[in-house]
Amino acid sequence: MTYTLLNIAFLAVVALVAIAAMVVRRAPRWRAVGLAAVLLLTLTAVFDNVIIGTGLVAYDDGLISGLRIGLAPIEDFAYTVAALVLLPSVWELLRRAPTRQDGEP
């Protein structure tokens, strides 16, 4: 199985959870998610390149798409994107419903 197929399966589950959060509760604050995305994707790019460059991690070229950001295959970034969408979505799904005592009707 290629990393791309693995990512597609994993991201499909993340998409379902995000859709459930938007339907059942409300959409996460996407502006905050976007800001976090810039920071986390930048950190992912830096540290993935470091660990690949130092030889701690290696990828079979037959299992990746060939697209890279520096030394890091683009597939490495799917897990960061998944976390950026999944965590706020789960947070919304698990958030306690407001009560009258909270000041909301």
Brief rundown of the structure:
The chain is mainly alpha-helical. It is built from three helices and two strands, in the order ααββα. Helix 1 packs parallel to helix 3 and helix 2 packs antiparallel against helix 3.
Structural commentary:
This protein has 105 residues and is mainly alpha-helical. Helix content is 60%, strand content 4%. It contains 3 helices and 2 strands, in the order ααββα. The chain has helices at residues 3-24, 30-53, 78-94, and strands at residues 68-69, 72-73. Strands 1-2 form a two-stranded antiparallel sheet. β1 (68-69) and β2 (72-73) form a beta hairpin. α2 runs antiparallel to α3. The longest helix is centred in the middle third of the chain and has 24 residues, at 30-53.
Number of strands: 2
Name the shape in a single word.
elongated
Mean pLDDT: 88
Radius of gyration from the alpha-carbon trace, in angstroms: 17 Å
Encode the helix/strand succession as letters: HHEEH
Question: Runs with pLDDT <50, length 5+?
Answer: none
Beta-strand percent range: under 5%
Structural class: mainly alpha
SS field, number of helical segments? 3
Helix content bin: 55-70%
Quickly list its features.
105 residues, mainly alpha, elongated
Topology:
Layout: H1 3-24, H2 30-53, E1 68-69, E2 72-73, H3 78-94
Antiparallel strand pairs: 1-2
Helix pairs in contact: 1-3, 2-3
